[in-house]
Each structure stands twice: as C-alpha cells, then as structure tokens.
Amino acid sequence: MRGRTSYSIQAPAAVVMVRPHHFTVNTETAADNRFQAEWAAGEDLGPLAFAEISRAAETLRSHGVDVHLFEDTGTDTPDSVFPNNWFSTHAGGHVAIYPMKAESRRRERRSDVVEMLKARYRVQEVIDYSGLEPDGLFLEGTGAMVLDHIDRVAYAVRSDRTDPIALERFSTHFGFEPMVFDAHDGDGVPVYHTNVLMCVATDFAMIGLDMLTDPARRREIVARLEHSGRRVIALSNEQIARFAGNALELHGRQGRILALSATALAALDGEQIAAIEESATLVALDIPTIERAGGSVRCTLAGVHLTPRP
C-alpha cells in the first residue's frame, strides 16, 4: 500500500468548481438520468445550491486543496455545477474538451477556465473533441469515464453519452486502455455515467458490482483493479443510489482525502469506511440540493492533473 501522505498521480491537489447563481434541475437530461429528483416548476433552488457549493469549496480549501472557483451567473446552463463532464486535465500538460449529448450542456464550455489553466499551469496542448457533436458522437468527460491514471485504464459504461469511437480517440491520444462494460440499475435501466457507480483511488476502488450485467466482465474488472494493487470495495445498488460511488480522491495538506457527499458517507457501512480510512481521510460535503440534479460531489469537481507554473 502506498503511504497516504505520498504524492499520487491519481489524487490531484487542485480542482475547478463552478458556483451556480440560478441553479435548476435540467429537464433535458432527465430521460436517461435516473438519479435526478422530481422538481416543481417555479421552485427556487438557486440560493440553496449557491450556498452548498460555497461551503463545499471552503471545506476543501480548509483541507489544503487548491480550489479554482468560477461563477455561473447565466440562466441557460442548468448543469454548469458539474464541470467534470466538459473538460479534463492530464499529466504532461494535456487538456481534453468533450462532446456533450444535451445542447444545454454544450453551453457550459468556457474559455476563461481554459485560459486560467494555461496561465496557472503548464499546458502543452488542448485537444477539442466537441466537433464530434454534429455526428452524434458523445463522450462526457470524467462522468462517462472513470480514469485510472496509475494503471492507464479508462473504465466506461456503455451509454448514449459514451460513444465507442470518441472513447477510442481519447484513449489513443491520452494513452489509456479502454475497458467498456454494461451496467443497469435494479430496475434494468442502463446507467448513464460511469462515475455514479465507480470511484478509483490510489489504494482502493469502490464499484457497484451488482450493476455490471456480464459476470465475466465483472470478474475481469475486479481482477484488473486488484492486479493494480487496489482493494475493491463493493457497493450495493442502494448505496449507489445514494451516490456512494460518486467520490473523488484528492491530495490535501495532510495527505490524501476522499471527497464525497454527506448522503454518500451515511450510506457506507463501518467496514467500508475503515477500508477507505486506511489510505485516505473521508471529507463529507453536504450538497443535497445539488444532488437533486442527478450528480454528487465527484461531478462537481474537475481535477487538475497539471504541473503548476512557478
């Protein structure tokens, strides 16, 4: 097991977050996102979501994580609080920009975020895949993929938001091996994003194994994770529904932390918590309003895997 205070390429020390000023639940994405909650027309969730992201950013900063907090004052980007879907960053100075399925989500891409990354970090190239959108080829970033930066594997649930052609292009450009699998919830409905059922940290991985429909593929994925030296923590369907799989390992002042929601932490049992705490400190962020939109803590965090400029 790697020491929890040692640097890990899997756990970035900085993140990008977006604080929404007019938060709503995106009705355009409800068709294939079973994690979204009912939302009454006219219900004002904006102030609650604003406060939740503000507190989450401050909590992460208090643990030594560098948070780049951007504001979204617009009214036509309801999912902007989830920036991990439209871009990702990678060691060696690489940035990817992704093709999004919902038109409303395409408006989330912002040049000021990319320019900040170029100014604060060493960025050698930006690869923009958004030109695939007119052809109906989508790959929604680190929602569609859960990336193992150590073993160089891109785990991806097959869905309309994860096109195999786009995934192959990304994997070729960024040096990942794609591992695609099918996953359904307890009602047989396909899972829309990989990061709601799977989290890969430095020394462990949490995954909703019961959702993987092919037993042979399930065994293969478990074997691959264990071969990389990780402890596999199986999550139940109920725990996945409470966002227990939607977590992100980060590097803070005192070592590695696992950022997850208060909802997710409450869903974990004592044995799972003990396994996580062997290598990371649990940091719970209370974002119940944000979770009504169908995503949780991991979705709100775009990790920065870039080298800071002096």
CATH topology: L-arginine/glycine Amidinotransferase, Chain A
Q: SSE order, as H and E? A: EHEEEHHEHEEHEEEHEHEEHHEHHE
| N/C terminus separation | 31 Å
Tell me the domain tally: 1
Strand content: 15-25%
Question: Which whole number gives the mean pLDDT?
Answer: 93
Number of helices: 11
Q: Can you tell me the residue ranges where pLDDT is under 50 for at least 5 consecutive residues? A: 28-33
Residue share in helix: 25-40%
Spatially, the strands of the biggest sheet line up as: 2-1-15
Computed over alpha carbons, the radius of gyration is 18 Å
Number of strands: 15
What does this structure look like?
With 310 residues, this protein is α/β, with parallel strands linked by helices. The chain has one domain: L-arginine/glycine Amidinotransferase, Chain A. 28% of the residues lie in helices and 23% in strands. The protein has eleven helices and 15 strands. It has helices at 46-62, 103-106, 111-120, 141-144, 164-174, 215-227, 237-241, 262-267, 270-277, 288-291, 297-300; strands at 14-20, 66-72, 87-90, 94-97, 125-128, 145-148, 153-157, 177-181, 198-200, 204-207, 231-234, 248-252, 255-261, 281-285, 302-303. The strands form five sheets. Strands 2-1-15 form a three-stranded mixed β-sheet. A hairpin with a 3-residue loop joins β9 and β10.
Question: What distinguishing features does this structure have?
Answer:
plasmid; single chain; three-stranded mixed β-sheet; alpha/beta; 310 residues; 28% helix; Amidinotransferase; L-arginine/glycine Amidinotransferase, Chain A
